[in-house]
Amino acid sequence: MLKKTLFQLHWFFGITAGLVLALMGITGAAVSFQDEILRALNPSVLSVEKREAGVLPPAELVRKLEASAGQTVSRLWVESESGNAARVLFTSAAGEPRAPLRYFDPYTGNFVGEVVGQDLFEFILQFHRFLVMGETGRQITGACTLILVFFCLSGLYLRWPRQVASWRAWLAVDWRKKGRSFNWDLHSVFGTWCLLAYLLSALTGLTWSYDWYSQGLIRLLADAPQNERVRKRGPTPEGAAQVANYDAIWSSIYSNAGPGLSAYNIRMPAVAGQPATVYYLLKDSPHDRAVNQINLDPATGEVTAHDRYASKSLGSRLLTSVYALHTGSYFGLAGRIILTLSSVLMPLFFITGWLLYLDRRRKKRQVRDARKGLTPHTCDAPAWLIGFASQSGFAEQLAWQTAGQLQAAGLPVKVQPLGSVSQDDLRQSENALFVVSTFGDGEAPDNARGFERSVLGQDLSLKGLNYSVLALGDRQYEHFCGFARRLSFWLTNQGGNPLFAPVEVDSGDTTALLHWQQQLGQLTGHAPAAAWPIAQYENWTLSQRRLLNPGSSGSPVYLLGLSSPSPHRWHAGDLVEVLPRNCAWAIEHFLEGLGLAGSDGVLIDGMPQTLDQALATRQLPDNRAHLVGLHAQALANALVPLGMREYSIASIASEGVLELIVRQERHPDGSLGVASGWLTEHAALGSSISLRLRRNSGFHLPDAPAPLILVGNGTGLAGLRSLLKARIADGQQRNWLLFGERNIAHDFLCQDELQGWLASGDLALLDLAFSRDQAEKIYVQDRLRESAEVLRKWLNEGAAIYVCGSLQGMAAGVDRALVDIVGSEAVERLIEQGRYRRDVY
């Protein structure tokens, strides 16, 4: 909770105060080297010729300056041996702004020319401190400086690496990263580099923003608070002008400072009766603000107080050196350069912070798209509970669309993943709808395993609960919609009242989904405005087909490449749904004995086609006895359309080619499976393949950079390959792949690519399990057990586990291995945290 709160505050302040801090950083960097820049712009003005006689004493300088300007000197800055021009301020008349700073030759007392850039730096300084907005600007910069302190502390907490002892985790930028990961690296690593500099700048800069802060420092650090400088804001006091005896003043300065005097700054009081203040530097001063202070009577030169820098305590010296600490000059030239570079980098954090924020907004917008039309629950009526259990994201999408239809009818809704639905949620709800998929052969999706363990099967009284279930499944599996059926059966046994019969959807069947919508319409009294939008199939061109396992004793595996005339985007981990077609030989064989010709005309969805074309998209039963005697149109109408087939995408969108890894399925009679046969053999290169992209959010990469453990076998490499490609494109190298197949000689799929990634460091670890290469079969779950210590280490460092491949054998074995290695509770926590994800079949 603390981390989430700090994160929210960090980004909120970052996108608001970040711009002001960026401007303060740039202007502060410029002011840090103001003197050097001005001297470079005005070499003939700000540099004067040194003379053996030395600089003139203050009395003579003041006399010449006042005679030349016709004004009374207020402040005088003189460096004894530097060869730099001295500076003077004259007293302004009451009510007038402060007179401009003027430069003169301390060896002659003559004014030098106008200084180019002086007004610009005065503006920059005012912008740095007050945004050129006076007191309002001072409050803004003060607040932003406090926020900078918060950024430093919260940023350190938020980015605290798991490998605390690793300097690379703290300080190294991986320049090969791209996108969000690279922005995160810049933001966090450079933030660590600049952390101390920003804290120093902020904690010292606050003295110019808040009197309470300045006074607090004085009380905390000063040896004698009454003698420390206090910035007083307000009108200049009125009264008779002070009469100054500069000879006496100079005598006091020299007698107290001695021959080591390097520079002095005389500040005359505004009115008579007040002491003058002299700040002076010695030649052996540790930095340019290690000043000594003398308070004296300007008329007599009598010293009333003398604070030597060297005699002060450490705290008082730091207080005197606030400006030097702020600019870095306290640490010499190197300190100034470091503070300046850190200031120049301030816009980097504003820019990368915004990029990270916009990326976060984009991802949230994608979630909102699924919740389109949904508004917050504001009425007093109890909300309808909509629970979803989704492995690939389809059930979640349908849950939000269900919620939208209910809310359009004026009903309040509450949408929750089934894993977060508790026994109390069910007891307290009057109406509930469950949109659940079944994983594998009758199992609960990963994010509903906790619900199945802690809620499903418990003895509850749900007599007040009205419910219905939308069940998603695939009839290819023996236990079609197994989890949804168990859920519905349990709800009924607990006394729940079915609103209407469960609706079972086979492979996204649109007719069944429309039936669910119509049932909701009857329930609410509001018919659905339109059928829920379903992505349309598009024609892609089969552009490449390469055998990956020549000579294998197993079925051939092919790498397929498909291209589209229009650009498409998908995420690593997403799926495609392919509409297969029967091959010409299968259609010809099916028509034998039916007395029909493939060229006969039929109408499909109102469009004229030949019978051959129609049969290419229909299931062709082995038993045709009931079809004999039908005319062409009746035959086409009697046959069920072929179902789509899902495949994991093996490439990333930026490559411009959608790649699949498909294994040929061969039936006992020797014939090829419809979909795998069509893709790997029957469809000619250059022909069209009907497919549509499907989002698989449950197998997407983590939002934040984290180590990845990828486990798979056979064609499961496809989904893992897309994740690896995305990670490599993003510059992330903490990738560990465990891959299994039959024989290394023939079944090492994508061997050159994987070994190349290992050699380049894009794969940190590659563990292989070729089951037929030794007497005792070895699988990926065995390799996982062998590397148990490495697995625990990676998990402790925040790694996420992704499993892709066969459900029976591999996925179940990996699950058992994980339980044996880290324990069942730890596995459940990984699932709840989204750090254990599976795309298995």
From TrEMBL:
The chain crosses the membrane at residues 12-33, 140-158, 186-210, 337-358. Pfam families: Flavodoxin_1 (PF00258), NAD_binding_1 (PF00175), PepSY_TM (PF03929). Signal peptide: none annotated. It comes from the Bacteria. One of its GO terms (molecular function) is oxidoreductase activity, acting on NAD(P)H, quinone or similar compound as acceptor. Residues 535-702 form the FAD-binding FR-type domain. Residues 384-521 form the Flavodoxin-like domain. InterPro entries: FAD-bd_FR_type (IPR017927), Flavdoxin-like (IPR001094), Flavodoxin/NO_synth (IPR008254), Flavoprot_Pyr_Nucl_cyt_Rdtase (IPR001709), Flavoprotein-like_sf (IPR029039), FNR_nucleotide-bd (IPR039261), OxRdtase_FAD/NAD-bd (IPR001433), PepSY-ass_TM (IPR005625). The keyword Transmembrane applies. PANTHER family: BLL7967 PROTEIN, IRON-REGULATED INNER MEMBRANE PROTEIN-RELATED. This is Flavodoxin. The lineage of its organism: Bacteria, Pseudomonadati, Pseudomonadota, Gammaproteobacteria, Pseudomonadales.
